[in-house]
Amino acid sequence: MACDNCKTGFKWGAESVGKEAKLDNIDCYVTGDNKDAAILIITDVFGWTLPNIRILADHYAKEANATVYVPDVFGGEVVDPDAMSDPEKAKKFDVMAFIGRNNKEIRYPEIKQHAQTLKSQYKKVAAIGFCYGGWAVFKLGADPSLVDAISTAHPSMLEKSEIENVKVPVQVLSPENDQMYTEELKKATLETLPKTGVQWEYIYFPGLNHGFAARGNPNDQKQKDGLERAKRSAVNFFNEFLH
User: Fold this and answer.
1) Burial tier of 151 (Cβ tally within 10 Å: 0-12, 13-18, 19+)
2) Per-residue b/e over 168-202, b at no fewer than 16 CB within 10 Å?
3) What is the pLDDT at residue 177?
4) pLDDT confidence tier of residue 9, bands split at 50, 70 and 90
5) Residue of 151, 143, 145, 148 lying closest to 170 (CA atoms)
6) Average per-residue pLDDT for the chain
7) Residue 15's pLDDT is what?
8) Residue 149: which of 226, 233, 206, 213 has the closest Cα?
9) Which residues are paired to 203 by β-bridges?
10) Could you give the CA distance from residue 204 to residue 56 in angstroms, rounded to a whole number?
11) What pLDDT score was predicted for residue 85?
C-alpha cells in the first residue's frame, strides 16, 4: 500500500549532542552514558542521519537515563530529508521501491544482531520503532532475550502475527489518521495485546497523522503538542521498564 505520509514532514532545527560511532561495524548515532540501560531506535525511511531522530535520541538519553543507539538500518542508503517538504524531491523518492530494497528478510537479521550486542553489554535494553521501525521492534519483542520492552509510534508493515507473538511490555503511540497503521490493525492491536499477558499501553493522538512523532511540525501547536506528548510517553515507558 502506498503511504503518502511516510515521506512527508518537517526537519527540526535543534543541534544534536551525541556522536557517530559503530555498532556491529555499522554506522550509528550514540548519545548518553548509562552503563546499565540502553535504548535501540529503529528509524523511519529517513534513517539514522535525520536531525529529528537524533534530537529525540538525546531527549531519551537524558530524560530516561539511558545510552541510546540509532543505527543505520538501510545499508548506507540515505534519503534526502528535503524530500519531506520539497515536492520535486518527494516525487523522485519512490518509498515503495525503497522498502523493497530494505524488506524484512534483508534487514531484520542486522537489527536482531544489534539487539543481541546491546543485550550482551547492558542489563536492560528497550527498543522503539518509528514507521518502518515499527514491525522490527515487534519482531524483537517476540524474544525476551533480545529486549526488555518495546515502543512504537505509527508502525508500518506490521502484521497481526507480530502483535500476537510479543512477549515483553509494549507501548503503542497511535495517531488518528494512518494509512499504514490502519483501523483494522488498531483494532487487532487492542484485541490482541490483552491476550498476550504482557503489560501494555495504547496511547491515542486525535487529529494527528502518520509520522507525527518523528516528523511533526513544531510550528503547528497541535502537532507540537502531539510530538511532545509522544516523547514524554516514551520516556515514561522507558523509565518504568529500564530502571
Assistant:
1) buried
2) bbbbbbbbeebebbeeebbebbeebbeebebebee
3) 96
4) low
5) 151
6) 94
7) 86
8) 233
9) 173
10) 20
11) 86
User: In the chain, where does DSSP find H-type helix?
Assistant: 51-63, 87-92, 95-101, 104-121, 133-140, 160-164, 183-196, 212-215, 221-242
pTM metric for this prediction: 0.96
CA distance 44 to 153: 10
- How confident is the model at residue 1, as a pLDDT? 46
Place of cell 523522485: 92
| 8 Å CB contact between 220 and 9 | no
- 208 Cβ contact list (under 8 Å, min separation 6): 175, 176, 177, 216, 222, 223, 226
User: Which of helix, strand or coil describes residue 193?
Assistant: helix
DSSP 3-state assignment of 222? Answer: helix
Fill in the amino acid letter for 217.
N
In the numeric block, which cell numbers belong to residue 195?
491476550
**Which residues, in sequence order, are CB contacts of 203 under 8 Å at separation 6+?**
171, 172, 173, 174, 229, 230, 233
198-239 pLDDT per residue, tens: 999 999 999 999 999 999 998 999 999 999 999 999 999 999
> Domains, the chain, ranges and CATH?
4-242 (3.40.50.1820)
pLDDT single digits (tens) 69-87 = 999 999 999 999 999 888 8
